[in-house]
Amino acid sequence: MSEINMWEIESSHYEKGIKLICGVDEAGRGPLAGPVCAAAVILPPNVDIPGLNDSKKLSDKRRRELFPIIKEQAVAYGIGLASHEEIDQINILQATYLAMERALAALAIKPELALIDGNRAKDFGLPVETVVKGDSRSASIAAASILAKVTRDDLMEKAAEEYPQYQFEIHKGYGTKAHYAALTAHGPSPIHRMTFLKKFYGEK
């Protein structure tokens, strides 16, 4: 299988004269605790960042190596969060959009187009194109996925210091066997998403 050109989607827009293209992605839709984090990144056209790929395909070490490089090379970047309370109040999809909105609002420069990972998006007040599996097809989205993932991992590691009994530093809030065992032993922490735990506690 030939290697995917991570710039193909952006290049098709560069040819139309659209230069300020922003990749948007999130991390943390699935976990049982903590915020959802989104990042928005505008990269210079065809900038060379070796190893840039979907954050899920990279090791933690590689993501952390790329994190400062992306921030340094980017024309602009923004990071946005939606808290566990907001997730419980408005649901995870709407909270994800809220985090994306905040990431876009944090950009120092307004993009001409936003490439959003996934197959649906809302009106963010600028032209939007959804890209299925965008984090492994678009350099801009891949860069955003790395910023979002590392930022959220860091937040969960900080939360682990406050709530060591849940071992957030290991699973980052995802529903592992050890995490469910900790929930059984200790009950939920103040940063758990209670709407995600209804079924678990309903079955007790």
SSE string: HEEHEHHEEHHHH
Distance between the termini: 48 Å
Strand content: 5-15%
The chain-level structural class is alpha/beta
Describe this structure in words.
This protein has 204 residues and is an alpha/beta fold. It is 42% helix and 15% strand. It contains eight helices and five strands. It has helices at residues 8-14, 60-73, 84-90, 92-105, 139-162, 168-171, 177-186, 198-202, and strands at 21-27, 36-42, 76-82, 113-117, 128-131. It has a five-stranded mixed sheet with strand order 3-2-1-4-5. A hairpin with an 8-residue loop joins strand 1 and strand 2. It is elongated. The mean pLDDT is 94.
Short structural summary:
Helices cover 42% and strands 15% of the residues. By secondary structure, the chain is an alpha/beta fold.
Describe the SSE topology:
Elements: H1 8-14, E1 21-27, E2 36-42, H2 60-73, E3 76-82, H3 84-90, H4 92-105, E4 113-117, E5 128-131, H5 139-162, H6 168-171, H7 177-186, H8 198-202
Parallel strand pairs: 1-4, 4-5
Antiparallel strand pairs: 1-2, 2-3
Descriptors for this entry?
204 residues; single chain; 8 helices; five-stranded mixed sheet; alpha/beta
